[in-house]
Amino acid sequence: WSPSAHLIKRLRQHEPLQPQCGPGTEAYRAVAARFRSWRRNGTKDGVCRYLVLVPYRGLGNRILAAASAFLYAVLTDRVQLLDGNTSMGEIFSCEPFPGTSWLLPQHFPISKLHNLTGDVRESYRNLVQNDSAASLVSRLPYVFVDLDHSCTYHDKLFCCDDERQFLRRAPWLLMRTDGYFVPALFLNPAHQDELDRMFPRKDSVFYLLAHYLFHPTNKVWGLITRFHSSYLRDSDERLGIQVRVFDGDTPFQHILDQILACTSQEHLLPDVVTQEPLRRSMAGARSKAVLTTCLSSWSYENIRWKYWQSATATVEVVSVYQQSHEEHQLSGYTTHDMKAVAEMYLLGMTDKIVTSGWSTFGYVGHGLGGLTPWIMFRPENHTTPYPPCRRAKSMEPCMHGPPFYDCRAKHGADTGKLVPHVQHCEDMSLRLKLVHPE
Ligand code: GDP
Q: Do residue 89 and residue 130 come from a single domain?
């Protein structure tokens, strides 16, 4: 999955913006000071314009949001800054912007960014309904774009925005989102040609963005590489199984049945024999390492027991490992997030991967590895779904809160049918993902 020459060119053009405009620079101080002492007397168009992302929810959500916002920032020549109230700064180092930072400084004039909603006067929702938005924007300190699940029809018109109309005039764009909104950018006529040139293959967008943007700190790399060398590296084959149990899905027997049915049906794990073979030699047997990730340890223990209790029908050695079982999802705890991101990278270092539908943790794991997953459908009524899983159409993450509007025709539409490379997700039927049409 190599980046196109045009993508590299766009990134090289974008890179100087961060050291020119990022925190700590004269330009940043000047724009931030104007923000602080806002007197509603307008602003001059400056070189430095910013996109402040307010990421929230779990780490998978935050990573997908940061990758999407970065692509939007590149397309619109803005410097991306992340709200610093997350552990992102402790788990990722500041490359590709050495010498500066992508974290919003603590003394940013708006202290409770998380409290902003589309109801504020400065919201895109309000501006897009105002005929004099262009002149109004010049009198506002910032524009707030709300892409939360609860956002409205007018918020989502952002996905059709041709920013030349008025957004370009806003030096500060604040954005709240918890997911991957890249498929919506591919539906926006304002960006389509440029995106086509940047990404001739439409199914490796997250992979390329993530490899450019996210660089785990040395401490996190330590967690990844030590685990990989100890448990995964020397096996003939590695299988990742990412298990995410959403509220209400416990007890978990039906999920265990689903994992076993999926891995057996798709020939990802060998069957076991019922009768103990007589002193079978395992010398030279093929080895398969299974990495499970889950907030608890039951999937790991049950799969491990299956291959300890019984011999494989294929004379393979199956070893099962799990790095952690944190039991509860926490937010803002660095060690917890470090383990989570290490597991996402380790999942990406396997050869084949099974993921839980709806989970952004899983999307990041397979997306980082460039792996097209087998997605397990989300169970309903504590019943193992049939089929238990399905090979995905691409390795791209799914966009959970898509627009249902055709930007060109200017009316509601099934946005999974507008262009061949934006289709419905396997795990969530009305949501959108990028695929590379054959
Ligand atoms: P999603 O909720 O499945 O979409 O994924 P997120 O990553 O956004 O949020 C889930 C959060 O729960 C993670 O960020 C972790 O904090 C925690 N979590 C969930 N599953 C696991 C897991 O398998 N391993 C670890 N270490 N943490 C997990």
A: yes
Q: Give pTM, 2 decimals.
A: 0.96
My answer on whether 84 and 232 are in the same domain is no
Tell whether 169 and 50 lie within a shared domain. Answer: yes
Report pLDDT digits (tens) over 243-280: 999 876 677 899 999 999 999 999 999 999 998 888 77
Q: What is the pLDDT of residues 140-199, one digit of tens each?
A: 999 999 999 889 999 999 999 998 889 999 999 999 999 999 999 999 999 999 999 999
Q: Which of 92, 295, 346, 378 to mutate to test ligand 1, by most ligand atoms within 8 A of the CB atom?
A: 295
Say whether pLDDT at 95 is over 80.
Answer: no
C-alpha Rg value of the chain to the nearest Å = 23
Sign of the Cα torsion 181, 246, 414, 202 reads positive
Query: For residue 438, what are its two tokens?
Result: 């054959």
Number of structural domains the chain divides into: 2
Which CATH number fits the domain that encloses residue 370? 3.40.50.11350
Question: What stretch of H or E contains 81?
Answer: strand 79-82
Structure tokens at 239: 């299988």
> 262 and 130 in one domain?
no
User: What's the pLDDT score for residue 44?
Assistant: 53
Residues 327 and 368 in one domain: yes
Q: What is the mean pLDDT of residues 85-104?
A: 83
The residues, ordered by sequence, that sit 6+ positions from 54 with a Cβ below 8 Å of its Cβ are 83, 113, 114, 116, 174, 175, 176, 177
Question: Rounded to whole angstroms, how far apart are CA atoms 175 and 369?
Answer: 28
Residue 118 CB contacts under 8 Å (≥ 6 apart), including other chains: 124, 125, 144, 146, 148, 151, 152, 154, 155
- Residue identifier of the C-alpha nearest atom 22 of ligand 1: 294
In percent, the amount of the chain with pLDDT more than 70 equals 97
In a domain, 153, yes or no: yes
Query: Based on the domain organization, do 244 and 180 belong to the same domain?
Result: no
Residue 65, domain member (yes or no): yes
* Domain assignment of residue 51, yes or no: yes
Residue 436 lies in a domain: no
Percent of the chain clearing pLDDT 90 (strictly above): 76
Atom of ligand 1 nearest to the CA of 293: 23
Domain of residue 257 covers 218-392
- Separation CA 229–CA 248 (nearest Å): 36
Residue 286 forms beta bridges with which residues? 316
13 and 136 both lie in a single domain:
yes
**Do both 172 and 222 map to the same domain?**
no
Binding-site residues, ligand 1, Cβ < 6 A = 57-61, 244, 293-295, 324, 326, 329, 336, 339-340, 343, 359-361
